[in-house]
Amino acid sequence: MREIQIKYGIMYGAPALLISWIVLTIAFGIRYLVVGAWHVLLWVAAAVATGFIFHELAHREVARRFGCRAEYVLWPTGLAMALFLALISMGSFVFAAPGAVMFACIYASRRTEGMIAAAGPLANIVVALVSQLLHALTGIWGLAVVANVNWFLAFFNLLPFDPLDGAKVMRYNMLVWLALFTASALFTFVY
For the chain, which has fewer Cβ within 10 Å, the N-terminal or C-terminal residue? Predict the structure, then answer.
């Protein structure tokens, strides 16, 4: 069994990603848990897995392709905020920032940082589009849950405030940010 990865009091890597996934699944699924719709929780778990985990892995892989050292790091305050806000809003608002991929590069430009930041929301947009298409073709309602969670995660992460991805993408290229943000906002609030 793999040891939990903790260094200087900070949890990182796969165990941190797993804990974050569980907490976000509860946060996004709280409204279904309260009414006893446990079967929906499986779709929420799939939505968070494809949304949150793919988002963070996209950041990590793009960072590594740029020659950076990159690892997911848990943010305990973000985890607590996600649960607290989800509980008091009954799932109407989820603060989806339980951690982040931290990276260090020998040489990192604004372009490098912007492309690494854009990778996560772009992964959400791709998963959302594929889920929407499959939902339209098959009528499987759970795929709409997957699409909605992914659209929200893209939108939330593209907000133009540090330390969110949106601020980094905006500093890199305003048009790229505007295109990604507009698409995610439209589908978050229209679909």
Answer: N
